[in-house]
Amino acid sequence: MQQFHAMAAPAQPVQNAASPARAHLTKADLGAQLARRADEWVRHAEPSDLLHVLLCGGFGPVIEEENGRVRTGIEVGGAPSPLSRIGIIWSDLPAAETLPIAALVWEATPPPADSRLWEAWLALDGHAREGARRFLHDEIDQNIPLFEACAEKWLCEN
């Protein structure tokens, strides 16, 4: 699975690594931008993509400098990163056990026993879909330091 969701960030123009504008980019600001991109991804994700992140994780940071602007985004299904494990529901239990528990918490109907039908279940059950989105938003909020670590790594390398 490869999905890319990047949006222009309202970052400051950057001429080169030594420019004063680059000095104003902090890991906190860039990390917050990445977290906002992840939240945007969650709001707009298709049920199949939500299910993938709930079961497998896979968020990846995208930070690019283009035409003097820093752009941030989120990639799903790319190379492993510090963000890869965000969103996985109870990774210590099989998905067939975790989804029914999550459905109870989300006040949704139980998922079908056949895993091939889980995507349709998530697409059709609004409580399950919104519960999944809330869960992922909470996961993002609780892992801001990981977004900042990705930003810090990019700032050190660029």
Structural class: alpha+beta
Strand order of the largest sheet: 1-3-2
- Which of globular, elongated, flat, extended, rod-shaped describes the shape? elongated
Terminal-residue CA separation: 28 Å
Q: What helical percentage do the residues reach?
A: 40-55%
Q: Which consecutive residue ranges, at least 5 long each, have pLDDT under 50? A: 8-21
Average per-residue pLDDT, rounded, comes to 86
Q: Output the radius of gyration.
A: 17 Å
Number of helices: 7
Strand content: 5-15%
Order of helices and strands: EHHHEEHHHH
Number of strands: 3
The main pleated sheet reads as: 3 strands, antiparallel
Question: Would you spell out the secondary-structure blueprint of this structure?
Answer:
Layout: E1 3-7, H1 20-23, H2 27-44, H3 47-56, E2 59-66, E3 69-76, H4 95-105, H5 118-124, H6 126-142, H7 144-157
Antiparallel strand pairs: 1-3, 2-3
Helix pairs in contact: 2-6, 2-7, 3-6
Please, could you describe this protein's structure?
With 158 residues, the chain is of the alpha+beta class. Helix content is 51%, strand content 13%. Strands 1-3-2 form a three-stranded antiparallel beta sheet, with helices on one face. Mean pLDDT is 86; it is low at 8-21.
